[in-house]
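ok trying this again, last paste got cut off
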Amino acid sequence: MSTTFTVDFFCSLDGYGMAKGWPGYWGKEGPEVVEDRVRTFAQDQVLVFGATTFRQFRHFVTAFDEPYYQSLNELPKIVFSSTLEEPLGWQNSTVLNEDAVTAIERLKRTTDVPMRSHGSIALNRALLAAGLVDRLEVIMFPAVSGRAGEAGLLHGGAELDLELVESTVLDGRTQKLVYIPHVHGKIPEGVGPQPRKDQGAVADR
């Protein structure tokens, strides 16, 4: 028995997950982006959150109206936290007060229900670094957050090699990129620019 873990990340072109002063989706969601979210969260899966993102989504689903929020309410949810206690104020939610890397490694071996985490920057940085993420799904909006940018999942994290398995343009402007991530290891010999074979002879002239 085993399952997959997907990290789901919204970002601007410069890799930030949110930006001060900008609206949600950077104001560029479009109907195809919304349809993608509906399809994504209609799947049978367990949603995994860090505490901060859990609190944010718990607020979003009551304060705002998106067509996939009912699915978020109905899906089972896990939140890793040492401060939150049940009842958590969001249906079908369970808190785990343990190391997330250890717990996800165990859950991947002992369940066959796929897991997905959206946002949750610190949590997902750790899982990427541990090699526990099977798919990295990035929806990149046509905006540069610049100095306003925050929550850069891939900024300052592990080095990764990415295998592109899906590329889609949504609403004619937003890219959905799906990768299989691999923790970056030793660089094989013979890759990248190679020295000129006659480099020594040129230097002697």
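PB: full thing came through this time. The first strand starts at residue 5 and ends at 12.
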